[in-house]
Design brief:
The chain contains eleven helices and 25 strands. It is α+β, with helices and mostly antiparallel strands and 435 residues long. Strands 16-15-14-13-12-11-10-9-17 form a nine-stranded antiparallel β-sheet, with helices on one face. Strands 1-2-3-4-5-6-7-8 form an eight-stranded antiparallel barrel. A hairpin with a 2-residue loop joins strand 13 and strand 14. The longest helix is centred in the N-terminal third of the chain and has 17 residues.
């Protein structure tokens, strides 16, 4: 046993006594040296994009946002200039802030001073309209994941959001830095607005484009052999049109972009094929055939006064948000949903109150009859599924639903498509988001 202890002691001395030069490194470098080299490589990649980067940056709560960035722009070390499609100001005003590539187990791109990236996570809803304490759940620091000859892929450290960087051309750089970004965004919206309903034909099938600029999502719908197909994904704006990072499927391929060329829109497939978008005055199917199938129902975000709602409708819909405004320490925001259960011919009305990560729900369920000749819904047999704190602040909507026959139609405005409820006598009109 003593001999064993002596042997272990000798081995420990030999091991601890080795210097770096005595160790045969498998990778020819220490881990610290390899990480440092990666840090330098990624920093060089950011800098060496001659005309900067077109960027799609995702969030967890509000789709994708577009950016243009140029690192060490105009020779300013550790400074990045940027514009973004967050709002009109960020699309036109070039902002310069500090950045750093640092090591935290892996190379990290960190935006060191407050800039447009931070707007996506600003905890104050008054800044960008995000959730109290969370913003849109966007990241400020990003890990390097992989690279290709013209692109870099990063992942957010906190929420694992995705940032995709694609090298810009000289022409694109000039457009981003000289007001072309906002001009393109307005032009895309203007085409959608003038089209009313935007459609295109591919493989013998007509597809309808359903943009939702508020949620930063776009859907592509078709009807084949009486079967409704709807594929959707997040989008952001670029100086060329719209980038769809979540590929939206049509047939056996995917739409990756919606391009603006000569004031016309074109969808571009994964293979690069471009198909012109044309205008239609009618949707492929009426909303009463879509609701509960392609759309779960109608949604009203906090403080939203959507186009098409008349004064009587506004009075009904704002009742719940007034509760939040009266008790800002108790609630962060509110939301109203009308959910269609088509197989069982029921509609569920939800009044939701939010505080931090908690949701307080009031839910009423109604039976409904739909008259295909008149296009009118009639509700009956109300059941309280969850009383909740919103009970008395959805009373106007509850009264309307129980005492009025109503029609359900699309409402088109500025290229966006909403769901509209109109009372039989036309005195009350309420517009909602489709979801």
């Amino acid at each position: 046993m003593k001999n064993l202890y002596k042997l272990l002691f000798v081995i420990s001395v030999l091991v601890t006594g080795c210097s770096r030069s005595d160790v045969d490194l498998v990778f020819k470098q220490t881990p610290d040296e390899r990480m440092s080299e990666q840090q330098q490589q990624f920093n060089q990649m950011l800098i060496q994009a001659q005309y900067g980067w077109k960027i799609t940056n995702s969030t967890l709560l509000k789709g994708n946002f577009g950016f243009y960035m140029d690192f060490d722009f105009d020779g300013k070390k550790d400074r990045v200039c940027m514009v973004s499609d967050i709002n009109d100001t960020s699309s036109t005003v070039v902002q310069v802030s500090a950045y750093r590539v640092k090591l935290v187990n892996a190379p990290i791109l960190s935006f060191e001073t407050y800039n447009y990236i931070h707007l996506l996570s600003d905890p104050n809803p008054g800044v960008s309209g995000g959730v109290v304490g969370q913003g849109f759940k966007g990241d400020n620091e990003f890990e390097f994941v992989r690279v290709t000859p013209d692109s870099m892929f990063l992942a957010g450290r906190k929420f694992r959001t995705e940032m995709i960087l694609v090298k810009a051309t000289k022409q694109e750089q000039e457009a981003y830095l000289n007001g072309g970004y906002l001009a393109n965004i307005k032009a895309v919206k203007a085409v959608f607005a003038s089209n009313k309903v935007s459609v295109f034909d591919y493989g013998g099938v007509t597809y309808q484009i359903i943009p939702n600029t508020g949620a930063r999502r776009v859907g592509i719908m078709s009807v084949v052999n009486n079967e409704i197909k709807l594929s959707s994904g997040n989008f952001s704006y670029s100086v060329n049109g719209m980038e769809l990072s979540d590929r939206v499927q049509i047939g056996n391929t995917f739409i990756t972009k919606i391009l603006l060329e000569d004031n016309k829109l074109f969808v571009q497939t994964k293979s690069g094929e471009k198909i012109e978008v044309r205008s239609s005055q009618t949707a492929l199917l009426p909303l009463n055939q879509m609701i509960g199938l392609s759309y779960m129902g109608l949604n009203l975000p906090f403080l939203a006064n959507l186009p098409g709602t008349n004064p009587a409708g506004t009075t009904i819909l704002k009742q719940l948000s007034l509760l939040v405004l009266a008790y800002p320490n108790s609630y962060d925001k509110s939301e109203i949903n009308l959910v269609w259960d088509v197989p069982n011919k029921k509609i569920i009305m939800e009044g939701l109150l939010f505080k931090g990560n908690s949701i307080y729900a009031t839910r009423f369920r109604y039976d409904y009859d739909f008259n295909p000749t008149t296009g009118l819904y009639k509700l009956s047999n109300k059941i309280v599924l969850a009383p909740g704190y919103a009970t008395y602040n959805v009373s106007l909507l509850d009264t309307f639903l129980q005492n009025n026959e109503f029609a359900l139609d699309y409402y088109f405005d500025s290229g966006n498509m909403y769901g509209k409820i109109t009372s039989k006598n036309g005195s009350t009109v309420m517009t909602f988001m489709l979801y």
